[in-house]
Amino acid sequence: LATNLDRLGGLLERFRRDGVMNLIGGETVPAQSGATFDNASPVDESHICAVAKSGAADVDAAARAAKAVFPAWRDMGGTERKKILHRIADGIVARAEEIALCECWDTGQALRFMSKAALRGAENFRFFADRAPGARDGQVLPSDTLMNLTTRVPIGPVGVITPWNTPFMLSTWKIAPALAAGCTVVHKPAEFSPLTARLLAEIAQEAGLPDGVWNLVNGFGEDAGRALTEHPDIRAIAFVGESRTGSMIMKQGADTLKRVHFELGGKNPVVVFGDADLDRALDAAIFMIYSLNGERCTSSSRLLVESSVAAGFVAKLTERVKRIKVGHPLDPATEVGPLIHKTHFDKVCSYFETARSEGATIAAGGARVGDTGWYVAPTLFTGAQNDMKIAQEEIFGPVLTAITFEDEAEALQIANDIPYGLTAYVWTNDLTRALRFTDRLEAGMIWVNSENVRHLPTPFGGVKASGIGRDGGDWSFDFYMETKHIGLAT
Ligand code: NAD
User: Fold this and answer.
1) Can you name the residues that pair with 426 across neighbouring β-strands?
2) Catalytic positions (predicted)?
3) Is the CB of residue 277 less than 8 Å from the CB of residue 309?
4) Ligand 1 center to residue 453 CA distance, Å?
5) For residue 137, which of 180, 172, 89 has the smallest C-alpha distance?
6) Do 331 and 109 touch, CB atoms closer than 8 A?
7) Ligand 1 centroid to 317 CA: how many Å?
């Protein structure tokens, strides 16, 4: 911990001195109004740096820069774009430790997970780099009188709006395919975690990405974010965040007919049948809710466990939850760090009272840890019913709600009885049941006898209030590109 803190101290000096400013057309610039806001660490509420508080004029400058350079970037060969994107990945790998340390301090996420998240960001760039040369691939569909060509072209400058949970990895996940497709980008990162978005844009600049292809505009959702979604030169918005913000963005973008891609909230079930490998299921259920502070869209925040095995399973779970190590995010032993900010901490803590008033049991946690920083104890609610708020609402912290079910039909009914549909996890050794059950589950992504393991060629996205559209593989290009038909008379 001491070594990491020492190293971090050196890394933060530049942010203290220069703040986190915008990057527009290759120039580091403050907000045109000169306004800034304070960025504080969730670890101890200490000031990290000032951040540019951008408004519509800054977004306009960034959108113009992205528009001006779009034709050149679009027309650059995919092979050339591939080389640049690989150089960005190299830059991420070279600075992975710096990224991880800054991200932990900015977000409260534990270092043991963030070191991997930085490298996963590099993988995202490599994956889409390799696909850049084929991004325009189409088909020939001859008819009696026409040679019909179907091809793809990049849609134009796009806006990318990202949240504060794993901000680095999520930014790479959206920006890498946009660049590979030939789009230019204006990125508005979350106001609560601006450090690594700035590092990422710098890495891209150092990798030789032409000025204006990637612009960074900091600020709040209601002004900078809103202006981006309303800007006429921005052709599409890739957004990751809360479901209700997605709904606002859809309204804001209506006048300019924005194409939208939404990765939104979740309240994902992990369904454990009595015939499953219960030890593996226990490990996975714990990992999927108590890693990344539970501030994870794909977390398994509802445990549905078959009544025949529930008592033993929940007893073991309770013991394990009580032993999870809460601590400083830069301590390599820490599993759960502080939540992102006071408002979110207050929201998460409010569910402890909600659980009591709804008649559930707090089997573990249910309290603040320490009196500095936004730490909460890993929490387990048991004896819950699916109509309780603790079972229906996205808490977005290290909080698991356990519900029992009698049979497969009831498990399915509970699993689907929720506004969300991002992921689901199913544990059973009955293959027929797995096929039947997953076919009927309302979720965009389902893992059977596994925690969430991302394979980049597969589709990523949610149904119902959890999202619109898919990322990953070629699906990302469906969003960032237009499909074009050309019919030639033969
Ligand atoms: P949020 O919706 O509050 O903010 C996300 C981003 O939107 C921020 O950059 C914010 O400034 C911006 N924003 C806010 N209001 C806006 C507006 N009116 N117009 C334009 N931009 C606006 O979300 P958050 O609290 O930062 O992130 C947590 C949420 O993100 C959770 O609900 C989580 O489930 C979700 N999430 C989903 C996925 C997924 O893949 N489905 C991944 C990560 C996070």
Assistant:
1) 271, 448
2) 263
3) no
4) 23
5) 180
6) no
7) 31
Residues 287, 450: contact at Cβ < 8 Å? no
Query: Whose C-alpha lies nearest to ligand 1, atom 20?
Result: 225
The pLDDT tens digits of the residues spanning 271-301 come to 999 999 999 999 999 999 999 999 999 999 9
Give the three-class secondary structure for 306.
Answer: strand
Question: Which residues have CB under 8 Å from 291's CB, separation 6+?
Answer: 110, 113, 335
**Any ligand 1 atom below 6 A from CB of 161:** yes
**This prediction's pTM:** 0.98
Q: Is 73 left (phi over 0), alpha (psi -120 to 50) or beta?
A: alpha
ipTM of the complex: 0.96
Determine the Cα angle at 118 with ends 113 and 124, to 5°: 120
Which sign, positive or negative, has the C-alpha torsion 423, 425, 431, 433?
Answer: negative
Our answer on whether the CB atom of 225 is closer than 6 Å to any ligand 1 atom is yes
Stated as kind and residue range, the H or E segment containing 216 is strand 214-216
The residue to mutate among 165, 172, 347, having the most atoms of ligand 1 within 8 angstroms of its beta carbon, is 165
Q: How far is CA 22 from CA 186, 214, 445, in A?
A: 11, 11, 35
SS3 428: coil
What length is written for the chain?
490
Q: Report, in angstroms and rounded to the nearest whole number, the Rg of the chain calculated over CA atoms.
A: 23
Report which of 260, 257, 256 is spatially closest to residue 238, judged by C-alpha positions: 260
Which residue's alpha carbon is at the smallest distance from atom 23 of ligand 1? 241
Residues annotated as catalytic are 263
- Residue-wise pLDDT for 177-201, tens only, equals 999 999 999 999 999 999 999 999 9
In the block, residue with structure tokens 């703040």: 19
pLDDT-based confidence at 33, cuts 50/70/90?
very high
